[in-house]
Amino acid sequence: MASMSNLSKQSPAESLGMAFSGWGLSWGGWLDNRQGEWWLLAQIILIAAHLLPPWPSLERWGYRWPLPMTSFGACLFCVGVLLVVQAFWRLGASLSPLPDPKPAAALVTMGAYRRCRHPLYQALLLCSAGVAIALGSLLHVALFLALCLLLRGKARREERKLMILHPEYSAYRASTAAIIPGFPLLDWRS
């Protein structure tokens, strides 16, 4: 009970600091991918590539992307950002950017994790789709598709580890969508 009262006395900054500690990142891991560091690196590269300008440029062809599409894409991006914050907050100390979960991490199945097993990945895909729609860019559509494949692979690795750490994960996995409910590439249930 004392640990619960200590948790409630923490400021949001302290809670966030605890979430970022203990990730297990090391130079050796970046070299040999021992905890899935290469998945994280590829994810960072794909997310950063969303900062590239739209290609092909529609304006070169004398076409302007419709404002309603730009607005819809921007709204979708904002919803994705809000969902990222919600999922981060819910994970708390179990948060890790690596596909290998923290050894002592609790299994979170409430809040955003009731909707799908990987709400952070779902939110990242919403952000990516929002950028592609807002810009009307084939390059960004390709980045979205690449991110779908990458996050699917990263999630599959993560789930293999979660099955070992949490025997109850099998039931959760069978009843809850993976990333996007009903989309075969991103929803595998056992």
From TrEMBL:
Protein name, entry field: Isoprenylcysteine carboxyl methyltransferase (ICMT) family protein
Record flagged with keyword Membrane: yes
Localization of this protein: Endomembrane system
Domain of life, source organism: Bacteria
Key words, A-Z: Membrane, Transmembrane, Transmembrane helix
A Gene Ontology term for the protein's cellular component: endomembrane system
Transmembrane segments: 67-89, 123-151
Organism: Prochlorococcus marinus (strain MIT 9303)
Pfam families: PEMT (PF04191)
Gene3D superfamilies the record matches: 1.20.120.1630
Keyword Transmembrane helix included in the entry's annotation: yes
Lipid bilayer topology: Multi-pass membrane protein
